[in-house]
Design a protein that fits this description.
The chain has four helices and no strands. By secondary structure, the protein is mostly helical.
């Protein structure tokens, strides 16, 4: 006897996303850098480092694999906030 695993339907997914929004919880993947690490990124950018240089430096200092595109997005979000 094989038990069939039910996959969530699109309606279930939409409901879960709506509920997370109502509760003020984030939707999607977690950020690679925490707020303390982001402060360093913003400082480096203000000092004139390129997004690629910041990505390399962040990778070495924080032990994470992060791209220059992610650094660009974080800096853009930081300026908009």
């Amino acid at each position: 006897m094989t038990l069939a695993v039910q996959r969530p339907t699109i309606h279930t997914h939409v409901y879960l996303v709506q509920r997370r929004r109502e509760e003020g919880q984030p939707i999607g993947r977690p950020k690679k850098l925490d707020t303390n690490e982001l402060e360093h990124v913003y400082e480096w950018r203000e000092k004139g480092l390129s997004y690629g240089e910041i990505a390399t430096l962040a990778g070495e200092m924080f032990g994470t694999d992060i791209t220059r595109q992610s650094i660009y997005r974080y800096c853009k979000e930081g300026l908009d906030a």
